[in-house]
Amino acid sequence: MRTCSIRNATSAVFLAVALVYTLTALMATSTRAQRRDAGPVSQDPAVTRPQMSGQVALDAELRATPSASALPGIYRVAVAAPVQTQLAASLSVGHGALGPVLGDDDSHSRTTGSVALSLSPRHWLGLALRFDSRYDQHSSPGRGNGNGDSGSDSSFVVDPRLTVRAVGRAVAGVDVGAELRLWVPPGLSTPSFDVAATTVDLHVLATYRPRPTFSLTVNGGFRFDNSADSVTSPDTLSRADRMSLGVSDFDAVMLGLGGVWHTGRVDVMAEWTWQLLVGTGAPSALASPMRFGLGAGWWLSPSIHVQFLAEASPSRRPAIDVGAALVPLDPRIQLLAVVTYRRSGYRQSAENRPLRSGGEAAKEPDEPAVLEPRQSVGQLRGVIQSFRGKPIAGTTIRIEPGGLELAVDQGTFEIDLEPGRYTVIVRAPGYREQRVRARVRPDAVRILNIDLRVDRKR
Length: 458
Hints:
Helices cover 9% and strands 45% of the residues. It is mostly beta strands.
């Protein structure tokens, strides 16, 4: 077993901080460049620009489902998305079967659970603390091998994990991010933790959204794995206990790919992750942990999301005999459920300000910006199409009162609004104007289905 070096983890932390700092600087530079390139909006200093009273629900945060880490993601795949949510909490449970592993007519099952809390002090910064637990049960008739494999036993492990994530916009439709994860495995002494065994993950994230209802995410990174150093005498353990620890003697290249499709309140998602173990004596690529996941999520309300996922691992089983290196093993089949609650503590106040020449808003230093407590909002969703069921190019909607105007892409729209009664005015070239009344209630969704008629008078 290799010797742990805490300097490896420290160097990785400094490298992650440098990555986050570089990304933040690039985000700030990009924002300044966009402001310079925007050009003059109006030469008339009296012109004002209307502001939205609510958030457009198709923004990057609401298109990204929350994950078990309470940050935007699928399950294992992290999604690069700006975060408006100030506080979120996730609870997840799962159960899986590892099947026969020891070659002794054995069977093993694993029950997992996690609790996570995330805080986002800025829209580009997310912090999350997560506690994962694992309860393994083993049944093995054994063959008198003297390794304590006979009979039935169980083990329980709790792992704390800290995540720091920064995200920003690279080009239109693509968000990028950098992430640092720290994991302190307990080894055999749950709930005590060995700081010298701290394991560091560095990840880069990229999420592409070709349309509001679909996103594709790629993850790549490296794990500086010191987790095996939390086990002082691995050769004294039974094979069943060795497979339950979840620790590794090898560093790993971390890869992930995931997609999410949104329709109404439902999210359909799929992901693939691969923990490719590297180093002298590492198992083959096909014996490294690989996982496929498929699931769906439902927004029970704007604050509560429920997700169900089925996960399969086709990886070969590496040797776990006494004297062999420690490697992680995943269930062959696993069912998972995640419930997330998120709460926005504040919202930005909106107002109309006159624009000066060059597009700059007139400054009023005597009126400092004030953050108002966020109130319960409702959501207005709609589908706009022709009588033949086709989306109509150039469709726009206007919401009164408020004067909010929005271009409708792909025939669907979602808008968060303050509770109240509204009139939705729909216009499209070559079609009759439609006016629809809608009442938006707190923490509820109002759905409109609007078919436009061809204007034959033109």
